[in-house]
Write a structure and sequence with these properties.
The complex is a heterodimer.
Chain A: H1 3-17, H2 25-28, E1 45-53, E2 58-63, E3 66-81, E4 90-91, E5 102-108, E6 112-122
Parallel strand pairs in A: 3-6
Antiparallel strand pairs in A: 1-2, 1-5, 2-3, 3-4, 5-6
Chain B: H1 2-7, H2 10-17, H3 21-25, H4 35-45, H5 55-58, H6 69-72, H7 83-86, H8 97-103, E1 106-108, E2 121-123, H9 131-134, H10 156-167, H11 185-197, H12 213-223, H13 230-233, E3 240-241, E4 249-250, E5 252-253, E6 286-287, H14 309-315, H15 319-322, H16 325-333, H17 344-372, H18 381-404, H19 409-427, H20 432-450
Antiparallel strand pairs in B: 1-2, 3-4, 5-6
Helix pairs in contact in B: 4-11, 10-11, 12-17, 14-17, 17-18, 17-20, 18-19, 19-20
The chains are: A alpha+beta, B mainly alpha.
Chain lengths: ~120, ~450
């Protein structure tokens, strides 16, 4: 490969490849817990909230494999799933994560399995 | 299959198995479901309990699975595409009917639904042909104009789920189970199988032995990595990048389309926020569409900013592209520090090449439709008629693509004959096979005018 092409490959691949392909978050918000195609039951965890530490922004949940703790990053998205009440799903906050509520958590693969990319909490 | 044939006759069934008719035929093996056929049925007929739209509403087969203003103008007012005009719940912030009718633009809330008044983008409808060759990338699947169209795992299979939420809803509440139902896993499988079956199943291997001198020169320019540079990001006129080190798959680039001055839709004065492309917030990149299908699927780019294939090629010699990150990279890598600079005749030549490529592919599809429409027996009659009608539409398309570029009048003459023969075959019962065979022959004659060796 000539230097010309090598330079092109490096720069253009860098430009093109900075973004990891991902599921669109806009419509994800309206998908009820456990029904997200290709991720629910595969790369998400369905669990119940055990405890929340607002100061440390951590969430401990109990799932099929026992307890797990997740860190909430600044970019972690929280959605309130109200589809069971036939109401519009909403964007939520840490305050909506309350003990006993059912959640679906998608780990942020880029940041490690212990950081949540998004959390759906069922009301 | 054998047991099914035997059990189709109760008498034979009893004889063959030596059992009672009931016990032998009670549990026949389930008929195999063709996922492509099932996907087709869902694609064109399933509304998912929503506002009446189907996938085919925005991706109609009779218009190359895309929308443009001319096609939209032929639709009746009660077509579900126009739900924003007919459904009071969707009148505001669901579509912009003016931009839809004038430019084929669809409203999308890719950056979220929390501020419908201000957070939206207006995008053209990408065709869904040749998906098998255009979705995969090194970073994962790329769907939609910015490569991030699907929720869930972001795959083509998951795409329909997001489309139902965005486009099929009865109200802006978008409550699953109320405003629509989500596709089941089986439906997603079938839809994926159907969309993957459409159009080309593999990339071409350029160069082709083209006959026309202008298209031939266009191909040379296209493949020249120091002149046209088209083949770097559209390897073999597909949707994959290849910079000399192998196929990199589909890629996203910021080519500066959003910076184009005087974009037709923006000239209306309608509110059109900046489209920031991939991600949330976006990184201003959009993914690369395949070019073989381009000439018959305009307008071009994610915002339908350019109406003609000649204009789309010319875009890459303009300031918007050459000042964009992608254009700057090309310039930085060029010995003369030039991004892309083609003169008018070269632009037309590249466009002619793309028109001919498109015609060759359309002829292939027309022949496929004609062959499929030649089934024997009256049971297949209605299906055959539909296939023949599709072949006619495809042929009209090919004629339009060549004529608009002033290309290959002899091929156009053959295609007109093929169109007439296919039309006659669709109307006729006796002699249908012969008419179809003649139509196929005319298609082949047309192709022989475009490329050597067919």
């Amino acid at each position: 490969m000539s230097n010309y092409y090598l330079a092109l490959v490096i720069v253009v691949v860098a430009l093109a490849g900075v973004s990891e392909a991902f599921g669109q978050q806009a419509t994800e918000m309206y998908i009820p817990i456990g029904q997200s195609p290709g991720v629910s039951g595969k790369s998400t965890l369905l669990a119940t909230i055990e405890s929340v530490d607002p100061g440390k922004r951590t969430l401990t949940v109990s799932g099929p494999a026992g307890s797990r703790k997740f860190q909430l990053a600044d970019r972690t998205l929280i959605w309130i799933d109200r589809s069971a009440q036939k109401q519009r799903n909403q964007t939520g906050t840490l305050a909506d994560l309350q003990r006993g509520r059912k959640v679906e958590i998608k780990p942020d693969e880029g940041a490690g399995q212990a950081v949540a990319k998004w959390i759906k909490v069922q009301l | 299959m054998i047991s099914k044939m035997i059990c189709s006759s109760a008498r034979l069934c009893a004889l063959a198995a030596g059992l009672s008719v009931l016990s032998a035929c009670k549990t026949p093996p389930p008929a195999p479901v063709d996922p492509v056929a099932k996907g087709r049925e869902i694609f064109f007929n399933e509304t998912f309990g929503g506002n009446g739209r189907t996938c085919g509403t925005c991706h109609p087969a009779e218009n190359n699975f895309t929308l443009d203003a001319a096609f939209i103008a032929t639709l009746p007012p009660d077509n579900p595409l126009f739900v924003a005009e007919t459904n009071a719940e969707l009148r505001k912030n669901f579509e912009n009917p003016k931009l839809m009718r004038q430019f084929g633009l669809i409203l999308e809330n890719l950056d979220g639904f929390d501020d419908l008044e201000n957070k939206f983008v207006m995008r053209g409808v990408p065709h869904v042909l040749a998906m098998r060759t255009s979705v995969n990338s090194k970073q994962g699947p790329r769907t939609g104009w910015s490569g991030d169209g699907a929720p869930g795992d972001g795959t083509l299979r998951s795409f329909a789920t997001g489309a139902v939420i965005q486009h099929f809803t009865r109200t802006l509440n978008r409550v699953a189970g109320v405003d629509f139902r989500l596709p089941t896993a089986e439906e997603l499988d079938a839809l994926e199988a159907f969309t993957l079956s459409l159009g080309r199943q593999q990339d071409l291997a350029l160069p082709l032995p083209l006959k026309g001198s202008v298209a031939k020169r266009g191909q040379e320019i296209f493949l020249d990595n120091r002149l046209g540079k088209c083949n770097l990001c559209h390897a073999n006129a597909g949707a994959s990048a290849n910079f000399g080190g192998g196929n990199l798959g589909n890629a996203n680039f910021n080519t500066g389309v959003e910076s184009l001055p005087d974009q037709p839709a923006k000239l209306t004065g309608e509110k059109i926020p900046l489209d920031d492309g991939f991600g949330r917030p976006g990184n201003n990149t959009f993914n690369t569409p395949p070019l073989v299908e381009a000439a018959s699927t305009g307008p071009f780019f994610h915002n339908n900013a350019i109406e003609t294939i000649e204009g789309a090629v010319a875009f890459y010699s303009g300031d918007s592209f050459n000042k964009s990150p992608a254009g700057q990279v090309l310039a930085a890598s060029d010995p003369q520090k030039v991004g892309i600079k083609l003169d008018a005749t070269q632009v037309v030549a590249v466009a002619a090449f793309l028109r001919v490529l498109n015609a060759v592919e359309s002829i292939r599809q027309s022949i496929e439709l004609l062959e499929a429409g030649a089934q024997e027996g009256s049971a297949a009659r209605e299906e055959d008629k539909q296939l023949l009608r599709q072949a006619v539409i495809k042929t009209e398309d090919t004629i339009r693509v060549l004529e608009a570029g002033g290309l290959h009048p002899e091929a156009v003459a053959h295609l007109r004959e093929a169109e007439e023969l296919a039309n006659k075959a669709a109307r006729s019962f006796f002699g249908r096979q012969s008419l179809i065979m003649q139509a196929i022959e005319r298609q082949r004659n047309a192709r022989a005018q475009l490329v050597e060796g067919f």
